[in-house]
Amino acid sequence: MDYQPLIDRWRDTELDRWAQRLPQQLAQGLSHQRYGDLARWLAVLDSLPDIAPDYCTLDRPRVGAGGHQPLPPHTRAALEQSLMGLHPWRKGPFELFGVHIDTEWRSDWKWQRLQAGIAPLSGRRVLDVGCGSGYHCWRMLGAGAAEVIGIDPTPLFVVQFWALQKYLQRPEAWVIPAGIEQVPAKLQAFDTVFSMGVLYHRRSPMDHLLELRDCLRPGGQLVLETLVIEGGVGATLVPEGRYARMGNVWFLPSCDTLLGWLRKTGFERPRVLDVATTTPDEQRATPWMTFHSLANFLDPANPSRTVEGYPAPRRAVIAAEAAGSWQPRVP
């Protein structure tokens, strides 16, 4: 996992401040002392067979790479065994040389709901906050983005990204082991910033929105996806204890409330692109993620409620712009 090419590319650019901090962030985010399983995950990464792809797919539901001829059975088995060693796979799906990584989330459904409503990504520098293994980073690259930076503090997801990168080999895509709070303040370097499935995990949603705003160039676009509830202006659910068995859920606003939060934090033209109820067809246990999933988090007698009695997960996609006039990036 060599980040030096990224550091070198960022030197003497608007991302230089981050380049200077990145070595320390990598040391902390990929610390063997802090993450006892990291050595095992890296051993799995090293065990992946060397296979040269004939093609890569970044613009289809199953992101991945393949060949014109099937792999020999022993090579395919070795590939599948190594990839399974990085269980659990949360966001996807992926397919590598005929091995279908059937992830917990059908993240392609989320991409399908938002892609038509956002500003075209062609030529843009994009930040994906809380990107997991980087599924949407690849889709952003497939949509024409010039550079995509994903950040996620979970080292397993970072290793999963590098497992894909071994075969996709795209130097425009990176996943950094960091959270939004580690991005230099007021960086204003990204044309589009995505925050999907993060806001409700933040104790201060306003601070999160301000952090996202300060990552954007003038006129750049925020694409925000988060849990919401039904209701009007001011309606907000603050779960007592757990929500859908998650202990770190803090604020679930209505769409109208969330639009007000965005205006309050300086965003312009906030608007709802999509609202959808999450179903067990979209989030479920699979052989690649064998732990409990959404079906276990809903009331079996009334699936419209969580096991705690709250409204079942309902997700909105919101778009808004930072103040100012966006100008295309000079190649």
TrEMBL record:
Reaction(s) catalysed (UniProt annotation): carboxy-S-adenosyl-L-methionine + 5-hydroxyuridine(34) in tRNA = 5-carboxymethoxyuridine(34) in tRNA + S-adenosyl-L-homocysteine + H(+)
GO terms classed as biological process: tRNA wobble uridine modification
Enzyme class: transferase
Enzyme Commission number(s) from the entry: 2.5.1.-
Binding site for carboxy-S-adenosyl-L-methionine: 91, 105, 110, 130, 152-154, 180-181, 196, 200, 315
Segment forming the signal sequence: none
Superkingdom assignment: Bacteria
Keywords noted in UniProt: Transferase, tRNA processing
A molecular function GO annotation: transferase activity, transferring alkyl or aryl (other than methyl) groups
PANTHER family in the record: METHYLTRANSFERASE (PTHR43464), TRNA U34 CARBOXYMETHYLTRANSFERASE (PTHR43464:SF95)
Subunit description: Homotetramer.
Function noted in UniProt: Catalyzes carboxymethyl transfer from carboxy-S-adenosyl-L-methionine (Cx-SAM) to 5-hydroxyuridine (ho5U) to form 5-carboxymethoxyuridine (cmo5U) at position 34 in tRNAs.
NCBIfam families: PRK15068.1 (NF011650), tRNA 5-methoxyuridine(34)/uridine 5-oxyacetic acid(34) synthase CmoB (TIGR00452)
Family statement: Belongs to the class I-like SAM-binding methyltransferase superfamily. CmoB family.
Protein name listed in UniProt: tRNA U34 carboxymethyltransferase
Source organism: Seongchinamella sediminis
Gene field: cmoB
